[in-house]
Recover the amino acids of this structure.
């Protein structure tokens, strides 16, 4: 039973729709609102109306994503042993700013660089540094986020440096498979918990674990917006996924245990507690009427 007024209460059928389309409510979002209210009445979490994206918003996010992916493409063309992670940062900053965009991580809550570079046992939020040199056998996650005309995009890729051990290579493959399984499990009007559970089960079946404390997130109007996306969830739980939502699929998959800790010196970098490697791929997607559309990868 809902004890508060729903954001999705009906308005006058002939009034302009709340989404700004210019169409009458009855021709636009009235049926959509009715369906969401039914979930609310069952006590199921639904997205806030302000995070539902319109076609215009989606085009804005795609424009941002085009720059975001160009950064990762540029890194992929040159990344190699002997390169410093600061060089990666400089590439991302240059490609972003030359396109008239802003690197979202730079100065975000004090983060000092334009991209995150996380190597081997670093789970996420690795800080680029001219003294950190990529070595043969390393695996690295490059996590890029972009602001363009007020719209945010976010994605990351793994890179294998030189002769990577079969163990690390398989971890990177499993992490990618987990992301792909997550994408396929996103369906309109299903629950986020269904997706997260599918990801978790695949990792466990392959002898890996998934980080519990850090997950995906809504992204588009803000760097991090609702929903928070867990990959160790239970089926039939979590927010209902509705058309117009945009969020990231980015499970952090560990070769060892799931336990992590934050670097006390820089207050950012997250590492595996047991020192074993971690891998992560990230995409940003849109929930559509029929399934999903990838926005950034």
């Amino acid at each position: 039973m809902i004890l508060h007024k729903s954001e999705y209460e009906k308005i006058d059928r002939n009034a302009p729709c709340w989404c700004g389309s210019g169409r009458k409510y009855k021709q636009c979002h009235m049926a959509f609102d009715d369906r969401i209210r039914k979930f609310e009445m069952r006590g199921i979490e639904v997205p806030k109306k302000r995070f539902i994206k319109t076609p215009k918003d989606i085009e804005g996010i795609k424009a941002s994503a085009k720059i975001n992916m160009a950064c990762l493409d540029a890194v992929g063309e040159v990344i190699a042993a002997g390169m410093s992670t600061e060089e990666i940062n400089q590439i991302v900053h240059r490609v972003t700013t030359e396109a008239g965009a802003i690197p979202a991580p730079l100065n975000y809550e004090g983060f000092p660089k334009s991209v995150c570079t996380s190597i081997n046992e670093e789970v996420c939020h690795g800080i680029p540094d001219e003294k950190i040199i990529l070595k043969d056998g390393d695996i690295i996650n490059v996590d890029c986020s972009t602001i363009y005309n007020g719209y945010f995009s976010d994605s990351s890729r793994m890179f294998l440096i030189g002769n990577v051990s079969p163990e690390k290579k398989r971890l990177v493959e499993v992490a990618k498979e987990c992301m792909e399984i997550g994408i396929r499990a996103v369906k309109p009007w299903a629950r986020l918990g269904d997706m997260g559970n599918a990801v978790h089960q695949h990792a466990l079946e392959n002898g890996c674990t998934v980080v519990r404390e850090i997950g995906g997130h809504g992204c588009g109007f803000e760097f991090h917006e609702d929903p928070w996306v867990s990959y160790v969830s239970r089926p039939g739980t979590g927010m209902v996924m509705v058309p117009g939502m945009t969020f990231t699929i980015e499970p952090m998959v560990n070769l060892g245990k799931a336990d992590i800790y934050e670097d006390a010196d820089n207050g950012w970098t997250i590492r595996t507690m047991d020192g074993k490697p971690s891998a992560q791929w990230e995409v940003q997607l849109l929930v559509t009427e029929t399934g999903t559309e990838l926005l950034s990868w």
In short: The first strand starts at residue 102 and ends at 103. The two ends are 39 Å apart (CA to CA). The chain is about 30% helix and 20% strand. The chain has a mean pLDDT of 96.
